[in-house]
Amino acid sequence: MEGKEVRFGIFNSALFATVTTDASCGAVNCMHDSFTPLGGLVTLLNMQLGEVVFGGVGAGLYGMLLFVVVAIFIAGLMVGRTPEYLGKKIEAYDVKVSMLAILVTAFVVLGFTAWAAVSRWGTSSLNNGGPRGFSEILYAFSSGNGNNGSAFAGLNANTPWYNTTLGLAMLLGRFFVIVPVLALAGSLGRKKLIPPSAGSFPVAGPTFAVLLVGTVLIVGALTFFPGLALGPIVEHFLMTSSGATF
What we know:
The protein is an all-alpha fold. Helix content is 65%, strand content 2%. It has one domain (9-242). A two-stranded antiparallel sheet has the order 1-2.
């Protein structure tokens, strides 16, 4: 119960933390830094996936549409035809700008986290060392980039260096995603509708839903797994091997 309120309890604290990081909310009813390592991993991954779980909260709608374009592209490779979505052909330009927007998150979060982890400006603000300290840095830039606003605690972010880098992470995480999305919207808006054919991949049904979820998870896993492995995952094994309890 450390870091949690008795009136909410452990279950409602974990549920609230999951929901607030699934969306661009930022409100908390407990200290996320008090979670177990794998509990903290869930909150990190929710933000790193672009907060697309609810698809429509904040920037979640166009974030999910970016993954839709990538999933349609993968489906087109399997079918062997030019992929289509809602009667519009998805071409190379559309896939490129979609991937550019998705990769911005990886560049901002991992880039600034790596800089903070190896610089005196970044490590001097830590109250915890080792993988927990790394998780705190990773959470700070994941939250800033994702317009979430929650914090992992244990990190003094009110310093000139963190104020500057977190501010840059916020700017890049918004405008460098919005611009490719606008480019994608303009490209699709100029295209004419084409009737579905026998080679069209249906985008309404469980098959596409599974493909879309798989795309989101695979992109997130391949992008952020190394960072998560250095933070909450290695901390989990250190905790269990030492017999420590939370």
